[in-house]
Each structure stands twice: as structure tokens, then as C-alpha cells.
Design goal:
Distance between the termini: 33 Å
Number of helices: 12
CATH architecture of one domain: 3-Layer(bba) Sandwich
Helix content: 25-40%
CATH class of one domain: Alpha Beta
Strand content: 25-35%
CATH superfamily of one domain: FAD/NAD(P)-binding domain
Bound molecules: flavin-adenine dinucleotide
Radius of gyration: 21 Å
CATH topology of one domain: FAD/NAD(P)-binding domain
Length: 407
């Protein structure tokens, strides 16, 4: 429910009601029905403000099969199913080289390898569920100004309308994204590797229906993904994520539609016929970041503030949702056993469970980014052999499918 003024104390305070914070709060609320944990979400941007909301923006997100299961358990899949586009096949190819590797959902015995959702649609569904929840108290717009550790939990100072208020929480779940001032204030550092690349995103109208195929094409500047979207006003549509070398993104944002289409078609070809329309273009700088500490007594980092990945393999949100599901389950179990959600033993148990998944996913994404962004002959050969092996070696193929599906 949307509230105007918060209580003085909560068991769990979620900072940031973006994709990850909102998903976590909903998951915790349904798991803790028996232990009645009090939950508050503080979100800086007003609900429905589509101009300033950094999470539910113009991008689209590929949700893995595993994320569908998480949203199903949360009770929001029915609403999401109406707005997502299933990915039935993934085609991987290399610009300038022959051959395509195909991965089909029927091989994996699932209805779809994943689903594409427009971030704004995901935001509408999650926000509706947050406001309808009788358990979650949502304060938006309100901003966290500071957090101070206490003997139990943390005191946080929030700013809402023109007043400031102090709240005590046994656990603060920091889900305020990749540019968290709170993290800096608490002295939590991040390791950062700049990829010297930016992702240019837009929606494109295409001549031929995509047939629920997602295309991943590797080019010298970096990977290019074309994801299937629901049609708009009778026009077949796809979401484009085009990785370019840093410094080249602005000219692609600013150039004419004709020039943009020409450059895109020279890399992507005409698999979907002519590109007929290009939506508004945005760019995002890309880096691999990881918080050097993810937990402290009364504090846990979730989502982009904990780790930010290259979007090449569409793993960032999917990994964060697996983290979120594990954290909410750990907290709910602890609460039933009468333990505080902010206790270090509880948080350590969560982190021990998720660390292998986090490291493997980061490594997989990082290796793919580097291998598939290079024109170096040795890497081109490795890449060709890799794609060939994906076709020929069943175990490798299975591993690739497992990663794509997040299972
Ligand atoms: C181009 C691109 C494509 C991507 N594609 C995919 C994909 O296909 N699949 C995938 O799994 N992942 C993908 N990702 C990754 C995915 O977008 C991120 O994992 C996800 O956005 C992380 O969400 P978050 O909630 O942690 O952070 P954010 O989305 O940044 O949300 C943070 C929230 O916190 C709020 N906030 C900030 N500061 C405060 C404060 N002080 N007080 C209160 N609230 C605050 C903000 O308003 C916002 O709502 C992609 C990323 C990029 C850049």
C-alpha cells in the first residue's frame, strides 16, 4: 500500500523500488505471511513518473526461464504474461563469418527459453502489486539521505515532501542501483572494470515478423542483440542492444534515422527484411562492478549496487532475482525461527549460498564480452570453434542453454 508517512520502526526497509527492490519486497511479503515481517520500500521517484525513473525506462529486458518461475511464485506472472514476448529460439552468429548456431526451446523441453519485457511494462506490473499488497508499505517519492549502524539494525534518515524523518530498521536492503551515494557514505568500495564500451538501445520496426527468435550477433565493436517484442500498431518490432566502443555512441544517438539504419544493416543484415522505423535512442556506459562488501550487520546490498554486468548475455536482472529469491527465503526462515533478519549469521548464510552463482555468472558474462568483442585472429578462431562446438558438442550446448535459461 502507498503510504504518506512511515512508522518509526520496520523489520526490513528496502531502499529503492526499482526492478530489484520491488521484486525483493514482493517475494519477501509472500514468503513471510506466517511471521508477519514488517516491510517498507522507499523509492526516490514518484509512481507513474516515466521520465525520471531509471529502472523502468525505455529499455527491454530478457527474462530467463528461471525468472519466470520467480515471478510465478510471487503471483505476478499472470499480469506479466500479457505483456512479455516469448523467446522460442536464439540464433548466435559472427559478423563477417559464415554460420549460425541455433538453440530451440523444444530441445530444452520448455515453452520458451526466456521472455522479453519492456521495462516500463515490468514497472507497471510490479508497482501495481506493491500498492495492492496489504503487507508492504511503499513511500514514493522519498529519498534516503543517510544510514547509521545501531546495536540492532540501522537508523536511516529519509526526506519526503519537505520534511525529514528517522526510521529504525532491523535490516536495510540497499537496492538503489549502480550509483549509490549511500554506499559511498558507508565506505563500501567497488571493484570496477571499465569495458570502454557503451550499449546503445532503441526499438526498431521491421519488415518481417521476428517469429519469436532472439538474435545475438558478434561484431568487432562488441555484441549486438535483437530481441523480439510485441507488435505495435500492426508493426513487427524488436528491441536492439548495440554495443559500441566508447566515444562512438553519441554519433549513433544523434545521426539521422536513415544513417542509423544504414550502419545497423551493414552489421546485422536483412534477417528481418528492411528496418522501417527506429525509436528514441539511448546509451549506457558499460562496466563490470562488484561491491567489495555485500553484507554488514543490519545491511545487505542487492541488484546493481552489489554487482553490475555487461548486458551481452542478459544476466544482470536475472542474477539479481536469484539473489533476491535466496535472500527472501533465508530471511523468512530466520524470522520463523525467531532470529533477526539483520543478524550477521542470517546474512552470511544468504551470501554463502549465492556467491558461487554470482561469481560464475560474472565470469561467464565477462568472458563472453571479451571473446566476442575482439577482432584478434586468435579470438576469432576461438569464437568460431566455440560456435562450432556449440553445434556439435551436446554438453556444451546444454551448458549454454542452462546459462541462457538461468537454471
Ligand atoms: C542496456 C542494458 C540492457 C540490459 N538488459 C538486461 C537483460 O536483458 N536481462 C537482464 O537480466 N538484465 C539486463 N540488464 C541489467 C538490468 O537492467 C539491471 O540488472 C537492473 O536494472 C538492476 O536493477 P536495480 O533495481 O538494482 O537498479 P536500478 O534499476 O538502478 O534501480 C534503482 C532504484 O532505486 C531508486 N533510488 C536510487 N537512489 C535512491 C535513494 N537514495 N532513495 C530511494 N530510492 C532510490 C531509483 O529511483 C530506482 O528506482 C541490462 C542493463 C543495461 C544497461
Amino acid at each position: 500500500m502507498l503510504i504518506e508517512s512511515p512508522r518509526n520502526e520496520y523489520d526490513v526497509l528496502v531502499v529503492g523500488g526499482g526492478m530489484v527492490g520491488a521484486s525483493f519486497a514482493l517475494d519477501l511479503a509472500r514468503r513471510s505471511a506466517n511471521s508477519s515481517i514488517s516491510i517498507c520500500v522507499i523509492e526516490a521517484v514518484a509512481l507513474g513518473d516515466q521520465t525520471n525513473q531509471p529502472s523502468f525506462d525505455a529499455r527491454s529486458t530478457a527474462l530467463a526461464w528461471s525468472s519466470r518461475a520467480i515471478y510465478e511464485a510471487m503471483g505476478v506472472w499472470k499480469q506479466l504474461a500479457a505483456v512479455v514476448t516469448p523467446i522460442e529460439e536464439i540464433q548466435v552468429s559472427d559478423h563477417g563469418h559464415f554460420g549460425v548456431t541455433r538453440l530451440h526451446h523444444s530441445e530444452q523441453g520448455v515453452e520458451a527459453l526466456g521472455y522479453v519485457v519492456e521495462n516500463r511494462e515490468l514497472g507497471t506490473v510490479l508497482n501495481a502489486a506493491l500498492t495492492a499488497s496489504p503487507v508492504i508499505e511503499l513511500l514514493a517519492p522519498a529519498t534516503i539521505q543517510s544510514a547509521t549502524p545501531r546495536t540492532e539494525g540501522m537508523d536511516v534518515e529519509i526526506e519526503l515532501a519537505d520534511q525529514r524523518k528517522k526510521i529504525n530498521a532491523k535490516l536495510v536492503v540497499l537496492a538503489d542501483g549502480g550509483r549509490s551515494p549511500l554506499c559511498a557514505q558507508l565506505g563500501i568500495d567497488h571493484s570496477r572494470e571499465n569495458y570502454e564500451q557503451s550499449a546503445l538501445i532503441t526499438n526498431i520496426g521491421v519488415e518481417i515478423d521476428h517469429g519469436n527468435v532472439a538474435y545475438e550477433r558478434f561484431t568487432e565493436s562488441g555484441p549486438l542483440a535483437v530481441l523480439p517484442l510485441q507488435e505495435f500498431e500492426g508493426q513487427a518490432r524488436c528491441s536492439l542492444v548495440w554495443t559500441v566502443k566508447s566515444g562512438n555512441e553519441q554519433s549513433l544517438v544523434d545521426c539521422s534515422e536513415e544513417e542509423f539504419i544504414q550502419q545497423l544493416e551493414s552489421l546485422y543484415g536483412n534477417r528481418l527484411g528492411f528496418i522501417l522505423k527506429v525509436g528514441q535512442r539511448f546509451s549506457y556506459p558499460l562496466s563490470l562492478t562488484e561491491a567489495k562488501e555485500q553484507i554488514r550487520p543490519g545491511l545487505v546490498l542487492l541488484g546493481n549496487v552489489a554487482h553490475t554486468l555487461h548486458p551481452v548475455a542478459g544476466q544482470g536482472l536475472n542474477l539479481a532475482l536469484r539473489d533476491s529469491a535466496c535472500l527472501s527465503e533465508t530471511i523468512a526462515n530466520a524470522a520463523e525461527a525467531g532470529r533477526s533478519p539483520g543478524s550477521m549469521a542470517v546474512l552470511q548464510s544468504y551470501l554463502d549460498q549465492q556467491t558461487p552463482d554470482q561469481h560464475q555468472t560474472m565470469l561467464f558474462t565477462d568472458q563472453m564480452t571479451k571473446l566476442f568483442s575482439s577482432a584478434q585472429l586468435s579470438k576469432v578462431i576461438t569464437r568460431k570453434m566455440g560456435l562450432l562446438s556449440l553445434d556439435l558438442v551436446p554438453t556444451l550446448r546444454q551448458e549454454f542453454a542452462r546459462r541462457a535459461m538461468g537454471t
